[in-house]
Amino acid sequence: MAAASPFVAIRGSEGISMINGPPSFKYHEQFGSDNSSRCRVMAFSPDGSLFAWCNGQSVLVVETAQYNLVCRLPKDKTVHMAFSPKGTHLSTWEQYSGQYKGIKRAIGT
Length: 109
Prior knowledge:
GO terms for molecular function: mRNA binding; ribosome binding; translation initiation factor activity; tRNA binding. By secondary structure, the protein is mostly beta strands. The chain contains no helices and nine strands. The mean pLDDT is 83.
């Protein structure tokens, strides 16, 4: 179930934090913050009951009613994530990177 009052997730150079919506616009104390400067991507589930983000070390998922950790995935290079329409699955995407091992380059090398 989603949280009772609206809130906004903010990503900046000091990490991710949550701010309560009107009328208070104060930092959400239960969420706290993730002070990693490598926070790149975040997503709410369609019904707002889950919030996920990548802090450069792992993907974290919390439920927004009490901000209890649901899971932590060791995915440090996640650049995109999305919840399924029912909010039951989270898809993450990491850009592939690798080295040229044993591959002969063609023209111009």
